[in-house]
Write a structure and sequence with these properties.
The chain has 426 residues and is of the alpha/beta class. The chain is built from 13 helices and 22 strands. The strands form 5 sheets. It has a 9-stranded mixed β-sheet, sandwiched between helices. The protein is globular, with a radius of gyration of 22 Å. The two termini are 35 Å apart. The structure holds zinc ion.
């Protein structure tokens, strides 16, 4: 610790919660869960019915046991629930002051958590961000939670934020150079594209710029790309993990060996088939509850597969770690950091009822490539049809189509997959 203070000046921890004992963490989280259960019963008839049916009192000592008996809610299920009971599926607190409402693909609507919640700040502190840093935030600020929520986390650790969002790589390069940006947050593939853009215009990312660290989310960081960032460009890289529905869930520390579970997240690893806990260290679905008084979403099933690392971490944080994301259950896939779910594709299909299509996600270099294979009788008649399809697709799915491949009638036979994910993560 003394050495750490001498070289880095500030504590590597966001607060003392990160080093509390297992018992202290249990006590703290059980109390927060019980408070959420009680508030949920008071403000949401749906939650009240669910908890009353269990005939258990939401006390600190029974909170985890009650949690275990509540249903797991997937993104798809939440979308359905919100369609039936807009906007928040009956899980919102009607008396809470909500400072903003996000949407994410589905669509699913989410009230933003309280401003006092340290969303993403633990991740940025662990990555070494702080006062004096000027950080390019290349997450989208438009409608989705990402931009503003990551922005809040950076502000909370004292960094200055450049809200560059989804601006072009040329503009990002210009901002990095002119504003002497010291850090980047966004997806790894977009940073790679920015570096390539700089090279194209004759600039040397390492020599001409000051970007010394980067925190990534929404996309896996492949080991080869990480090594390239670190060795070739001198960028210290970190991974963060979360979901719009529940905020930040886990983050990497300087050991870069697993992701510490956030103090605000109650994480379970469940067998997706049985719904039971898997033994510690085995792969299961990451299911998250974030105690709060605004949105009573208990047991959100992320659809991500991971496992727990239970050995203590040399960094001194006492939370368990997630060993990355091993894959997805179900069909929804992430393309360039955004989920594309079958429900969205069905939505697009409704607008073009005579056409059949599927999407194929591949990888070219370090980028996701989205191909649409389409059987479109009558498409030859007018290019407008195809253009309006592309436009509508981008609107509904929030990702652009890279290629359209026309296939002969009869290629997509009954029961064909809407989404084919051809990416292979090492
Ligand atoms: Zn650690």
């Amino acid at each position: 610790m003394g050495e750490e203070m001498a070289t880095k000046k500030r504590s590597p921890y966001f607060d003392e919660k990160e080093t509390r004992t297992v018992e202290e963490r249990w006590e703290g989280q059980a109390g927060e869960l019980a408070a959420m259960l009680r508030m949920g019963m008071k403000k949401s008839p749906l939650i009240r019915r669910q908890i009353e049916a269990l005939e258990m009192k939401p006390l600190k000592r029974s909170a985890f046991e009650i949690l275990k008996r509540l249903p797991v809610t997937s993104r798809e299920k939440l979308v359905q629930m919100e369609i039936e009971d807009a906007p928040f599926a009956g899980l919102g607190n009607p008396d809470a002051y909500i400072d903003r409402i996000f949407t994410s693909p589905g669509p699913v609507y989410e009230p933003h958590l309280s401003e006092s919640d340290p969303l993403w700040a633990r991740a940025y502190r662990a990555a070494g961000f702080g006062p004096g840093d000027v950080v390019l935030n290349a997450f989208s600020y438009h409608l989705v939670a990402a931009g503003l929520t990551f922005h809040g986390g950076l502000r909370r650790v004292g960094a200055t934020v450049v809200p560059s969002g989804a601006s072009s790589t040329a503009i990002q390069v210009q901002l990095i150079r002119d504003l002497k940006v010291t850090g980047y947050t966004g997806t790894p593939s977009f940073l790679k594209a920015i570096i390539e853009k700089a090279a194209e215009t004759g600039q040397d990312f390492k020599k001409d710029f000051n970007v010394g660290r980067a925190s990534f989310a929404a996309e896996p960081l492949q080991p080869a790309l990480r090594e390239e960032f670190e060795k070739q460009y001198g960028i210290d890289t970190y991974q963060m993990y979360g979901a719009t529905e529940v905020g930040d869930v886990a983050y990497e520390c300087r050991e870069k060996n697993g992701w510490h579970i956030c103090e605000e997240a109650v994480v379970e690893i469940l067998d997706p088939e049985t719904g039971n806990d898997v033994p510690p260290g085995e792969i299961g679905e990451v299911v998250v509850t974030r105690p709060n008084g605004i949105f009573f979403l208990f047991r959100f099933g992320t659809g991500d597969l991971s496992r727990l690392i239970v050995q203590p971490c040399p960094c001194g944080r006492t939370s368990l770690r997630l060993a990355g994301v091993a894959g997805r259950i179900g069909e929804a896939v992430k393309v360039r950091g955004m989920f594309v779910a079958p429900s969205q594709l069905r939505n697009v299909g409704e607008r073009f009822p005579r056409w059949k299509f599927q999407i194929v996600i591949g990888r070219a270099g370090n980028k996701d490539v989205l191909t649409v294979r389409i059987e479109a009788p009558g498409m030859e008649r007018g290019k407008e049809d195809l253009a309006s399809f592309e436009k509508y697709f981008a609107e509904i799915c929030t990702v652009r189509i890279d290629r359209i491949e026309k296939v002969p009638a009869g290629t997509l036979i009954e029961g064909y997959k809407l989404i084919v994910d051809e990416r292979r993560w090492p």
